[in-house]
Specification:
This protein is mainly alpha-helical. Helices cover about 70% and strands about 5% of the residues. It is built from 13 helices and four strands. A hairpin with a 4-residue loop joins strand 3 and strand 4. Helix 6 crosses helix 9, helix 10 packs antiparallel against helix 11 and helix 12 packs across helix 13. The longest helix is centred in the C-terminal third of the chain and has 30 residues. It is extended and about 90 Å long.
């Protein structure tokens, strides 16, 4: 009975034969001459031609094609634009940035009021004439639930997409194409789409949209990481009679686990920062929708007070991610 290594060697031999047949064809020889040239060099000490050797030297064709393609894309991108004079407004930017952390006499009044609003908006929620919002914990729960579901769904997907684990090319391509299609859809469109199906005014469309968005991110980063791993332990366990699932669990899972949790927290950070789209899914009164309302009305002292806790949460998540990766390794 052929082992996994024998099947892999046979597949590699067939692939090598196909490559040799292609490069031996007239088109293959012409294509090879476009990218490589044979150069004769003299290796003798006296340089008298007694020890000559012919080597293959790459031509600059690839670099030229990349440069031409890049310049073409850049040139096409500039065609529809009409550039006007740039008006640098560093002073305006500096003043606007300073107002984020400066209490307004008509709203936050003083530093104590600024800190009080920051804590109230984060832990309790806002109830004002301009914006009503739930505490930040609500947004965090929605994002955490959606990210967790998406990450769990991504586990079988990124193993199916890795060509060093799944050698079935048709199934691998089908899964990749389907997930690439999901990654092309912005979270905003997903929220609107699922709100039309499930109705407006509940958190389920937001959770489903975040789950699908997280699935796309996790699968893409994880399967690319898996393809860089050393597969000798995996192949050794397979040759001993284990199936793919057992070989993955024993050889790949211990090495993948730290990166899985690191990418999970990274995806959670992205979802928290992008949670402003939840207001479009019918989740009214969210932390991000109130933040957007204050930005549109220029109440930057409120904006700064609401951004500061958000910055602290993201920083803590990053520290947790770094610590978790170190401990799991």
């Amino acid at each position: 009975m052929a082992t996994a290594i024998d099947r892999k060697n046979a597949a590699d031999a067939r692939k090598k034969a196909r490559k040799e047949k292609f490069w031996a064809s007239p088109f293959g020889k012409w294509l090879d001459s476009c990218f490589y040239q044979n150069v004769t060099i003299d290796l003798s000490e006296a340089q008298d031609g007694s020890d000559r050797k012919t080597i293959r030297k790459p031509r600059p064709t690839k670099a030229i094609l990349i440069a031409v393609l890049f310049l073409t894309v850049v040139g096409i991108s500039f065609i529809p634009f009409k550039f006007g004079p740039v008006k640098w407004q560093w002073g305006t930017f500096g003043n606007s940035f300073a107002t984020l952390f400066t209490p307004n006499p008509n709203r936050t009044v003083d530093s104590a009021g600024w800190w009080s609003f920051a804590w109230t908006s984060f832990a309790i929620g806002i109830n004002s004439a301009l914006a009503n919002s739930s505490p930040f914990l609500t947004i965090f729960e929605i994002c955490f639930l959606g990210t967790t579901i998406g990450a769990l769904l991504a586990i079988p997907v990124y193993y199916l997409c890795a060509n060093n684990v799944n050698h079935n090319t048709p199934s691998r391509l089908i899964v990749k194409i389907f997930n690439d299609f999901l990654r092309c859809i912005p979270m905003f469109i997903l929220c609107v789409f699922f709100s039309m199906i499930m109705g407006i005014g509940n958190i389920l469309p937001a959770v489903v949209a975040i789950s699908i968005f997280s699935l796309g991110i996790m699968y893409q980063m994880m399967y690319e990481y898996i393809e860089t791993l050393n597969m000798q332990p995996f192949e050794s366990i397979r040759s001993a009679g284990a199936n793919n699932l057992q070989a993955v669990n024993l050889s790949l899972h211990p090495e993948i686990k730290p990166m899985f949790f690191a990418y999970f927290i990274y995806t959670l950070e992205i979802n928290i920062r992008g949670a402003v789209v939840l207001s479009y899914a019918g989740v009214s009164g969210t932390y991000m929708s109130a933040l957007q309302a204050y930005i549109e009305n220029g109440w930057y002292d409120y904006v700064g007070a609401m951004l500061f806790p958000l910055f602290i949460v993201v920083a803590i998540l990053q520290l947790v991610s770094n610590s978790m990766v170190r401990k799991l390794r």
